[in-house]
Amino acid sequence: MVASDTYAEFLREQLSPLGRVTLRRMFGKTGVFCDGVMLGMVTENTLYFRVDDQNRETFKEAEAFPPLNYAKQGETIDLAFWRVPERLFDEPDEFIMWGRAALAAAHRVAAKRPAPKQGKAPRRRKRPS
């Protein structure tokens, strides 16, 4: 389920110290982007931040909840997004610290992806002489 309009606006406001925050529907969920990089996902108005080996310690508290996942061919696939504890919405400084850690992980993930292939330039036809 995607983020409600109210929840999306709330997240844009809360995460605004990080940069330009946008949300986009994808795969029945909502991706949370900052300056074009996906740092989180929302499902059923629950925020999940991106986690990797370098920020896992920051998100230690989030291990109490299952990570965002999906079913594929009868198996559950865990994603690298961990649920943000509700208490952080009452702790704006700590919430932004988690957001920065998630954004840093998102940049590391983006840097590892291969650059998109560039299409060949269209051939020019010779003009008849």
Automatic annotation (TrEMBL):
Lineage, broadest ranks: Bacteria, Pseudomonadati, Pseudomonadota, Alphaproteobacteria, Hyphomicrobiales
Species of origin: Bradyrhizobium lablabi
InterPro entries assigned: TfoX-like, TfoX_N
All residue ranges annotated as the TfoX N-terminal domain in the record: 13-106
Pfam families the record matches: TfoX_N
Spans annotated as Disordered: 109-129
Protein name, UniProt field: TfoX N-terminal domain-containing protein
